[in-house]
Write a structure and sequence with these properties.
Length: about 325
C-alpha cells in the first residue's frame, strides 16, 4: 500500500509520533511504500530522538525507495495519514494511530479451500507475482483462509458487508471489514446467472465496495468458469489418458476429444467429476456428439479420478477468460 504522511499528521504529540514510527517501521520492512513531502518529513524526523540513529536519514531512504517503486508503475492502494478527521471511504485518510492499526493488519484472502485454491491461484501468477504473493504469505502480510465452501463464504461476506455499514454509521474504526478479499468458483452448469449462493456472495462484495466507494472487484470476485478443473487444457486430459489402460484409457480420451470438439461454453461449465446428463449437456453443445462422446460426457471422470487429475495437472492451467492475472494484481495492490 502507498502511505502518504501529510504535514497535518506531523504535529507534536507522543502518541502520534509513536504511531508514525510504527508506520515507518512497516515501510522499512518492505510492507508498504512511503510518500510525502521530503522537507516536512525530514524536519519532523530530526526532532525524534532515537539513540544511534538519524531518523531523517531513514526517511530519506524510504522516500527514495518509494519513488523508485512508483516509477516502475505497479498500482497500489493509497492511504493518507492526516491530522484531521478520519475518512474510511475512498480516498482513505486516517489519523496516525488508526493508520498504523490498518497498515499492520494482514489482508485476509478467503477461498473455498485454502490449500487447493491457493495452489490454483498461484498457477496463474507470473514469476514476479508468485514471488511477491508467496513472500507476503510467509511474512504474515497475506493470510490465506478456508471459507469452508460457498455457503459459509456467503454468510461471511454478508456479515462483513453488514458490519461495514454499522461501523461507519457509528464512527467506529474498521479492521477485518476493510482487509479482506474473496475468490470462489462460479459452480455454473450453464451460461447465465450464478447459482443463488454465488449471487449472494457477489451482492455482498458489491455492497461492501459501494459502502467504501471502491471500484468493482476491489473486495473480490466470483470466477467465470465452473471450478478448477475447467481451467485445464484438453491436451493435458488426453495426455493423462495414456497413463491408463483398456476401457479407462478409451473413456478419458473420448472425453478429452469431445470437450475439445465442443469448445466454449461446454469447457467453461462441464462437471469433470460427475459428468452431465444429456438434458443438462444439450444447451452447452455446439455440435452433435457421437454416441461414444455422449457416453463419455455423461460419465465424466468420477470424483476420485477428477481430483487426482487436477492435482497432477494444475500446473498446466490456462485462463482463456483473462480474468485471473488482473485479479492477482488487485490482491497485490491491496497488500
Amino acid at each position: 500500500m502507498w502511505v502518504e504522511i501529510t504535514q497535518g499528521a506531523l504535529t507534536p504529540g507522543v502518541e502520534d509520533d509513536l504511531a508514525l514510527l510504527g508506520v515507518l517501521a512497516l515501510c522499512w520492512a518492505g510492507r508498504h511504500q512511503l510518500l510525502g513531502d521530503r522537507a516536512a518529513l525530514t524536519a519532523w524526523a530530526s526532532g525524534i530522538g532515537i539513540a544511534g540513529t538519524d531518523l531523517s536519514d531513514v526517511v530519506d531512504v524510504l522516500l527514495d525507495r518509494g519513488q523508485q517503486v512508483q516509477a516502475l508503475g505497479p498500482s497500489q492502494e493509497l492511504l493518507q495519514v492526516v491530522g484531521a478527521q478520519a475518512q474510511w471511504t475512498a480516498p482513505l485518510a486516517l489519523r496516525p494511530a488508526a493508520a498504523l492499526g490498518l497498515l499492520a493488519r494482514p489482508l485476509r484472502l478467503w477461498l473455498e479451500n485454502g490449500r487447493n485454491d491457493w495452489s490454483f491461484l498461484l498457477a496463474f501468477a507470473s514469476p514476479a507475482q508468485a514471488r511477491l504473493l508467496e513472500g507476503a504469505a510467509r511474512a504474515g502480510w497475506l493470510v490465506v483462509s478456508s471459507g469452508g465452501g460457498c455457503g459459509e463464504l456467503k454468510v461471511l461476506v454478508e456479515d462483513l458487508a453488514t458490519g461495514l455499514g454499522a461501523k461507519l454509521s457509528s464512527g467506529a474504526e474498521l479492521g477485518e471489514e476493510r482487509r479482506f478479499f474473496v475468490v470462489l468458483d462460479s459452480d455454473r452448469t450453464v451460461p447465465g446467472p450464478l447459482p443463488s449462493s454465488q449471487q449472494a456472495v457477489e451482492r455482498g462484495l458489491r455492497a461492501a465496495e459501494g459502502t467504501l466507494s471502491q471500484p468493482q472487484g476491489w473486495a473480490g470476485q466470483v470466477l467465470q468458469r465452473r471450478e478448477a478443473e475447467n481451467y485445464i487444457p484438453t491436451d493435458a486430459l488426453e495426455s493423462w489418458a495414456m497413463t491408463f489402460t483398456g476401457d479407462d484409457r478409451t473413456q478419458i480420451k473420448r472425453l478429452a476429444r469431445a470437450l475439445r470438439q465442443q469448445g466454449t461454453p461446454l469447457l467453461d461449465h462441464y462437471d469433470y467429476k460427475k459428468g452431465m446428463a444429456a438434458a443438462v449437456l444439450q444447451p452447452l453443445l455446439s455440435a452433435a456428439p457421437t454416441d461414444d462422446q455422449s457416453r463419455a460426457l455423461h460419465l465424466g471422470l468420477g470424483a476420485e479420478r477428477g481430483l487426482k487429475f487436477y492435482q497432477q495437472h494444475h500446473a498446466a492451467l490456462t485462463d482463456p477468460s483473462g480474468e485471473l492475472g488482473p485479479l492477482l494484481a488487485r490482491v497485490l495492490e491491496r497488500l
